[in-house]
Amino acid sequence: AKSAGKENYEFFSPELLDSSLRKQEITAALQQALVNGEFSVHYQPQVELVSGRVIGFEALLRWNSALGAVAPSEFIPVAEECGAIHSIGEWVLREACLQLAAWQKEGRPAICVSVNVSAKQFLDTQFAEKVARILAETDVPAEYVEIEITESVMIDLDASSALVEELQAIGVKLAIDDFGTGYSSLNAIKNIQIDTLKIDKSLVDEVLGSDRSMAILATIIELGKNLGAEVVVEGLETIEQVTLMRQYEVIGQGYYFSRPLPGDKAARVWDKYLEQ
Ligand code: C2E
Ligand code: CA
Ligand code: CA
Ligand code: CA
Prior knowledge:
Blueprint: H1 2-11, H2 14-33, E1 39-48, E2 53-65, E3 68-70, H3 72-82, H4 85-105, E4 112-116, H5 119-122, H6 127-138, E5 145-150, H7 157-170, E6 173-179, H8 185-190, E7 196-199, H9 201-205, H10 211-226, E8 230-233, H11 239-246, E9 251-253, E10 261-262, H12 263-275
Parallel strand pairs: 2-4, 4-5, 5-6, 6-7, 7-8, 8-9
Antiparallel strand pairs: 1-2, 1-9, 1-10, 2-3
Bound molecules: ligand C2E and calcium ion (3 copies).
């Protein structure tokens, strides 16, 4: 058949061969990455625009592998596919909690750290238990930890809402990440109490110079606030974007304030904001 012929052709295309080899390499390298200590976590500040206060950090995974630096957008999907995401995700959460505990010991003000959690981890029925164990081990109060999930997690509402309830009982916060990029946005937030709505960079990028995009963004911000959620606008890079967004009294995150940095460097950026 025609379609089978096309598949055969695709199977032997050099690009596909390359990408499947690359995937195999990444899969193999991922098996050793944790024991070899190849991962690190970087932290990006979240700034309350009206006050200029740093109110949190997002934890972002970095992998310095034998293959060189590999971006999360490339290795996270592979880790999800091969199952490594479970141990990696646990490691990131523990690492973020250890950082919080270390900052507390240094006498820093209490702050929240957000950790990205993959849809695959959200299908793990023991996920909430694992979270509770890591909080207990690291002695971090649950209220300082926020779990970031994407809308895609909420498509299977029955499976995920039980876990959401368990997490809320533990006391961790819940953020919907990349809001505005999916097709089920409203369903995702209709049935669960979320603490934070994170609006995707792509929505913000179109705003300057487009009244229609601005109207949509303003309405989403209002929606988040009406639901009692904090609103974080992601990917702010310019002073123009920051000035505009400040009028909407949201929290901003982006290169304008800081790139994601190792814990000690992130703390120095935080100090800079504390001095202001
Ligand atoms: P995300 O959760 O939406 O994270 C925001 C991404 O935008 C990060 O990319 C961050 O470095 C980048 N970013 C922040 N500010 C700006 C800006 O002003 N301009 C631009 N162009 N980019 C900005 P990163 O670190 O490469 O992570 C990419 C994605 O990989 C994340 O998107 C998240 O989906 C995933 N990821 C990262 N760390 C983890 C993790 O520990 N676990 C899981 N499951 N996923 C992770
Ligand atoms: Ca995120
Ligand atoms: Ca995001
Ligand atoms: Ca994203």
